[in-house]
Design a protein that fits this description.
The protein has 435 residues and is an all-alpha fold. 78% of the residues lie in helices and 0% in strands. The protein contains 21 helices and no strands.
C-alpha cells in the first residue's frame, strides 16, 4: 500500500472517531495503530510497546502528577475562597472589582495547580455566585473565570510545558520562565478589560458598596500567605537552580499536604481520598493521552511527515512571520475540535522542526504554542473550561458562558501577535536565568 494512502486512512479514522465523540486517547491510539499496520505490517505493531514504555518513562513526566497532587491538595483547603477574598479586598474598589478579583485569584491559583479546569472549579465556585448575587451580567461574570482559569496552562508550574519538554527536550525550567511574563501580561490585560468594560457599561458590573481597611486587606493576605510562600519556594528553587522541576514538584506536593493538614486543618480522611482520587484520574488521563499521541506521531514519523512539512515551509517564498501567523490560525481552528493536551502532543513533533528551520527558538515556539492552546480550553464545542463552569454554576445557560469568553479570545490572540512581534516577551527571563 502506498504511504500516502495508509496515512490518509489513518487520519480519516482519527477524524471519524473524533466526530462520534470517542475518547481522544482512543482515537489517537486506534488511528496510529492502523497507520503503522498499513505502513509496516505486524512489525510496525511489534515496536509499539517498547517505544511506548520508553516515552512514558521519561523522567520529566514524573513532575506532572506531583504538580497535580500539589494543586489538588491545596484546592480542598478552602484556598480558593481565601484567594478570592484577598483579591477582592485589594481590588474591590475598582470598577468590576469582583471580576478583577476573580481573575487575580485564578492567576495565583494557576501558579499552584497547573490545571485549568481545577482553577475554574475552585475559583468559579466562590466567585460566580457572588458576582451574580451583586447583579453582574451572567456572561460577564462567567467569562472572567473561564478565561482566567486557562492561565494555569501558561503560568508555571504548567503541565503543558512539561508535556512540550517531554517531546522536544527543551528545559522545563526555561519553559516555566518563558511562560511567566506572557502569563502575567495576559492576566493584567484581562483585568484591564473588566475594569474598562465595567466603567463604560455599569449595568454589566454594578459598583460594590463595601469598604475595607488596610487591616482587613493584610489579615486576608495573611490567610493566603503560606500557600503563596510555598509557590515562591517551589518556583524559586527551579529558577535559582537549587532543584530540578521534578524535585521541586515533590517538595511542593509534600509542602501542600503539610499546609492543608497543619495550617488550614482541612485534611480529613474524606478530603484525602478526594485528593488522591482526583490526582490519579487526572494523571492517568494525561498519561493515556501522552502514550496514544506518541503512537500516532510514530506513524507520522515513519512516512517522514515532519521532514516533508519542514521542507515545504522553508521553501515558501513568504515572510516567516506570515507562516507563523498562518500556523496560529490553523491551531486556533483545530483547538475548537481537539483538546489542548492532545493537540500539543500531535503537532509539536511536526511544527517545531519546521519553525526551527526558519530560525525560531524552540523555547519561543513552545510559549507561543501554549498561549494559542489556551484558547482551545475556552472555545466550543470541546472547551473543557466552558463545561467546568457549567458544572459549578448549573444555573447559567451555556450560550451565556459562550458569549462571555468572546472578548478574551481577542485578548489572547492580541498577545500572540505581540509575542510574535516582540519575542523577548517570552525569551527575556529564560536568557536572564542562563546569564
Amino acid at each position: 500500500m502506498p504511504d500516502w494512502l495508509g496515512v490518509t486512512l489513518a487520519i480519516a479514522l482519527l477524524l471519524l472517531l473524533i466526530a462520534v465523540r470517542a475518547p481522544i486517547f482512543v482515537a489517537l491510539a486506534a488511528s496510529g495503530l492502523l497507520g503503522l499496520f498499513l505502513l509496516l505490517g505486524l512489525s510496525g505493531l511489534e515496536q509499539v510497546p517498547l517505544s511506548l514504555s520508553g516515552q512514558l518513562l521519561d523522567y520529566a513526566l514524573v513532575a506532572a502528577p506531583m504538580y497535580i497532587l500539589m494543586g489538588e491538595a491545596l484546592s480542598v483547603s478552602g484556598l480558593g475562597r481565601d484567594l478570592f477574598s484577598t483579591a477582592y479586598r485589594w481590588l474591590g474598589r475598582v470598577p468590576g472589582g469582583l471580576g478583577a478579583s476573580a481573575i487575580g485569584a485564578s492567576t495565583v491559583f494557576g501558579a499552584m495547580s497547573g490545571v485549568s479546569i481545577s482553577s475554574v472549579a475552585v475559583v468559579g465556585r466562590m466567585a460566580v455566585p457572588e458576582m451574580l448575587s451583586r447583579g453582574y451580567r451572567p456572561s460577564f461574570a462567567s467569562g472572567t473565570v473561564v478565561a482566567s482559569g486557562a492561565l494555569a496552562m501558561l503560568i508555571p508550574p504548567s503541565l503543558m510545558f512539561i508535556l512540550y519538554s517531554s517531546v522536544t527536550g527543551v528545559s522545563i525550567a526555561a519553559l516555566f520562565a518563558g511562560g511567566l511574563v506572557p502569563g502575567l501580561l495576559l492576566s493584567a490585560l484581562m483585568i484591564c478589560y473588566v475594569v474598562i468594560t465595567a466603567r463604560l457599561r455599569p449595568s454589566y458590573a454594578p459598583s460594590p458598596d463595601e469598604r475595607f481597611t488596610w487591616g482587613d486587606r493584610f489579615r486576608a493576605l495573611g490567610r493566603s500567605l503560606p500557600a503563596l510562600l510555598l509557590v515562591i519556594v517551589v518556583l524559586g528553587s527551579i529558577y535559582t537552580g537549587l532543584a530540578t522541576p521534578t524535585e521541586a514538584a515533590a517538595v511542593g506536593a509534600v509542602g501542600a499536604f503539610l499546609l492543608v493538614g497543619l495550617f488550614y486543618r482541612a485534611l480529613t480522611p474524606a478530603r484525602l481520598w478526594q485528593v488522591l482520587k482526583s490526582t490519579t484520574q487526572v494523571s492517568a488521563s494525561i498519561l493515556a493521552i501522552v502514550g496514544s499521541a506518541f503512537v500516532f506521531t510514530q506513524m507520522l514519523v515513519v512516512v517522514r511527515v515532519p521532514e516533508h512539512v519542514s521542507t515545504f515551509i522553508v521553501g515558501l517564498d513568504v515572510p516567516r512571520f506570515v507562516i507563523v501567523l498562518a500556523v496560529m490560525l490553523v491551531l486556533l481552528v483545530l483547538g475548537c475540535l481537539v483538546d489542548a493536551a492532545s493537540l500539543l502532543l500531535v503537532v509539536t513533533p511536526i511544527l517545531v522542526p519546521a519553525l526551527t528551520a526558519l530560525g525560531y527558538d524552540p523555547l519561543w515556539i513552545g510559549v507561543l504554542l501554549v498561549i494559542n492552546l489556551e484558547m482551545a480550553v475556552i472555545t466550543p464545542p470541546v472547551g473543557l473550561n466552558l463545561y467546568t463552569m457549567k458544572s459549578v454554576a448549573p444555573g447559567l445557560d451555556l450560550s451565556e458562558i459562550f458569549r462571555g469568553i468572546v472578548p478574551y479570545l481577542f485578548i489572547e490572540f492580541g498577545v500572540i501577535l505581540l509575542v510574535i512581534a516582540v519575542p523577548e516577551i517570552a525569551t527575556w527571563l529564560p536568557s536572564l536565568m542562563e546569564g
